[in-house]
Amino acid sequence: MAKTPTEDGKRQRGKTQEVMVWTLMGMLIIGLGGFGVTSFSGAKTRLATVGDIEITTNDYARALRTQINAFSQQIGQPLSMQEALAFGIDKQVLQDVLTRAAIDNEAQKIGLSVGDAVVATELMGMDAFKGVSGSFDREAYRFSLDRNNLSETEFETNLRRDISRELFQGAVAGGFAAPKPLTDTLYAWAAERRGFSMLRLGEADLTAPVAEPTDDELKAHYDAHIDRFTKPEAKRITYAALLPEAIAKDQPVDEATLQQLYQDRIGEFVVPERRIVERLVYPDQAAAEAAKARLDAGTSFEDLVAERGLTLDAIDLGDVSREELGAAGDAVFAAAEGDVAGPLDSDLGPALFRVNSVLAAEETSFEDARDTLAIEIQTDAARRLIADKVEEIDDLLAGGAAIEDLGKDMGLTVATLDHVPGQQGEAAVEGYPAFREAANAVQDGDFPEAVLLDDGGVVALRLDEIVPAAPIPFDEAKSQVAEDWRKAAVAKALSARAAEIKAEIDGGAAIGSFGIVDVTPETARSGFIADAPETLLADVFKMAEGEVKVIEADGFVAVVKLDKVLPAATEGEDATAMQASLAAQAQRAIAQDAFAAFTNALTAEAGITLDQTAINAVHTSLQ
């Protein structure tokens, strides 16, 4: 088969509560979509214990698979078990299930639990178990649990633990408050502002032009930065492609079909005259006439709009035709650009119409549109022709045909290119995402397959060899070397000039005497300065008031003078909101740290036993 391109009022719970029920719900909701859950032949093999609480292999497998799927959705591609292990997801999940078990163990010891009524209420509110009527459906409940290798007793026990765990967390993590000295310090730092002047330097600011390099200088630059002039490792790929654009011009075109297509789409080619109009409606004719009289006497149209409690956006009709304006059409179309017509009748009552722009009629004759329409018809025919050949191409490849045979037998274009994985090369076929995806994935010995492209084309490819990284010969790279050398030379000269200017400003010269200065009266740490590196403000906020500094980044050199340091505002809605936000963040952080320390102590006190063989078995089963 040909490959196709890849298509691109409830109870709230705390962050620490990555609890079993939501692990199960994630598996239920996503699992019902197709991937299911790993089961160890129905056996509940013990993987670990924390105190009196047992963690089964199925508990760990479900939690691990859910986390892998969540991470896969985040990055937009499936994550293999080997990759998950490399990312350390298994360790994170194991720590989570151990922490939950430690909390369950402590809750069991102190007798913390909830009644059946609470469990039933929570259960019946879960979307995963609702039927078409929107209410709890016992058959859906049983089916979901069966699909996930769970009994009702097991699931409801986990749900009870989940709710109890939430209560436990609230008792431990609740009640913390951020110390005021801490939040005051954070606010004073975060809300501080700076005002500064900046002189950006460009090549025109140099006192002397950068000299042209000699061949020896270029060769020395080439040798010193050979990594910049090295071709990366590439895959040498031979491919056979059939693209619509390559065969479209050879497809026949019927003149009658072109004429009919032109008539069917006449609205695209014959566009009547239109106007961009604003309409200001009044409750009656007298009010509209009074407004027009005031307009004629000098009141602005904008003032009339404001008096009606409206905005220009609210009265904007956009571009309209004469017919769309109804009875007002003739008068509005007779008005010049910028004029106000009326009062005129409208479907909302008497109104004044301001003509903001006159859009002339446009007409494209059949003769002028013919070539465009012909290309569309030919391209569509080419796509259909290629689609008819895909199955035959697949059959040839399945029968052992080489890529070159597709050129001889099917008329595909055969060529070879060096593809750098993760990059789009200059060859036209590399512009197709489906080709790049196949080229990135192809391995030595892979069986060639037809790959469908997003414009209806088809390509098949073969990996010939891996071309190792190698320096580009100096003569071939000379122009690139010269450009790179010049960039470095200009940057060095600008840096030296900036140092000279800084020295003169430190000696009493005005920063404005060296060129146009960009003045920023005040900005926050999170502010934005156009056409400047992201590190600029971080450097500015490290400066002392009155200090002059040269700030450099790739392609950027500037002399900056810090004009003033503005302390954080102590009053106002913005200040209060920011202080409250910082206090809330600090409070959450303290509560989370306290809860983490508490659960670590619980785990240590309860004692942990782990069965590494069982853990490895889970990892193997999920591959």
Question: What would you note in describing this structure?
Answer:
It is a single chain. The protein is an alpha+beta fold. It has 4 domains: about 20-175 and about 610-620, Triger factor/SurA peptide-binding fold, CATH 1.10.4030; about 195-225 and about 475-565, no CATH class; about 235-245 and about 380-470, Chitinase A, domain 3, CATH 3.10.50; about 275-360, Chitinase A, domain 3. Helices cover about 50% and strands about 15% of the residues. It has 23 helices and 19 strands. The strands form 6 sheets. It has a 4-stranded antiparallel beta sheet. A 4-stranded antiparallel beta sheet has the order 12-5-14-13, sandwiched between helices. A 4-stranded antiparallel beta sheet has the order 8-7-10-9. The two termini are about 25 Å apart. The model is unreliable at about 5-45 (pLDDT under 50).
Q: Note the beta-strand portion.
A: 15-25%
Identify low-pLDDT runs.
4-43
CATH homology group of the largest domain: Porin chaperone SurA, peptide-binding domain
Report the structural category.
alpha+beta
CATH architecture of the largest domain: Orthogonal Bundle
Helical coverage, percent range: 40-55%
- Number of helical regions: 23
Number of domains: 4
State the end-to-end CA separation: 25 Å
Report the count of strand segments: 19
Order of strands across the biggest sheet?
16-3-18-17
